[in-house]
Amino acid sequence: MQAVVAAAMAAHTILTASPLLSHYPRLSPPTAPIGHTSTLHSSFHGLSLKFARQSLPLSLAASAAPKKPLAVVAATRKGVAVLKGTSNVEGVVALTQEDEGPTTVNVRVTGLTPGPHGFHLHEYGDTTNGCISTGAHFNPNKMTHGAPEDEIRHAGDLGNIVANADGVAEATIVDKQIPLSGPNTVVGRAFVVHELEDDLGKGGHELSLTTGNAGGRLACVAAVPKKRTSKSKKRIRKNIWKRKGYWAALKAYSLAKSISTGKSKSFWCESWTKE
């Protein structure tokens, strides 16, 4: 019995001096009298070292947990614009862009003479004076005119659409230089159908490297979003202001607003959606 008591006292002394007790207070040995046998028995069990599984701190748990890749949701932008002019030429331009990929342009135009017709994106979404006020081809990189597949081309050079014997032209154009968002967006600009074939900068005419010698403008549509953001409003005003001044910009914006709300039927009516 004395040997048992001596062993217990030795264990008590060792555990009291152990550094574990400073971190785990629950391991502190009881202070019951050593000579009491039943207390000694319970004290001995109290000194059994059993470590419970504890939760890691949040920061450590986050770093230890396996990281899952972030889900990337592609944004689809769409636009539908109705081409109208002073003649019988009219049509629809439907645009779609998946995330940051190229823009797909589906065009259907009626009332054309059979054959190819130049189709371009022009700099200004200003139709206050008909298609003539849309300015030159959209050309942010200051290049010469060319074909859609050329490295040297205007961003707005979309080539030709070809009308059949009934005067109907249908085409699908996929292009990387006319996004539906960003600094070079089509918003605030205009699509134009021309009278003649675009020679794609290779016709040798004095206008080949500027307009493709595509002739007059038959129909146009301003690409102005129905639900405008403050950025798109500023872009529309800025583009027209650069060409015609403040009051023309204000007038054009007011006209665009009345068209989008159905109060005017001049030149175009369109809507934009994003999903």
TrEMBL record:
Residues passing through the membrane, by range: none
Recorded superkingdom: Eukaryota
Cofactor: Cu cation; Zn(2+)
Keywords in alphabetical order: Antioxidant, Copper, Disulfide bond, Metal-binding, Oxidoreductase, Ribonucleoprotein, Ribosomal protein, Zinc
Sequence similarity: Belongs to the Cu-Zn superoxide dismutase family.
Protein's UniProt name: superoxide dismutase
GO cellular component terms listed in the entry, alphabetical order: chloroplast; large ribosomal subunit
The UniProt record lists the keyword Zinc: yes
InterPro entries reported in the protein's UniProt record: Ribosomal_bL32, SOD-like_Cu/Zn_dom_sf, SOD_Cu/Zn_/chaperone, SOD_Cu/Zn_BS, SOD_Cu_Zn_dom
Subunit structure: Homotetramer.
Reaction catalysis annotation: 2 superoxide + 2 H(+) = H2O2 + O2
Native source organism of the sequence: Kandelia obovata (Mangrove)
A GO term, aspect molecular function: structural constituent of ribosome
Assigned EC number: 1.15.1.1
Domain spans labelled Superoxide dismutase copper/zinc binding: 89-220
GO biological process, one term: translation
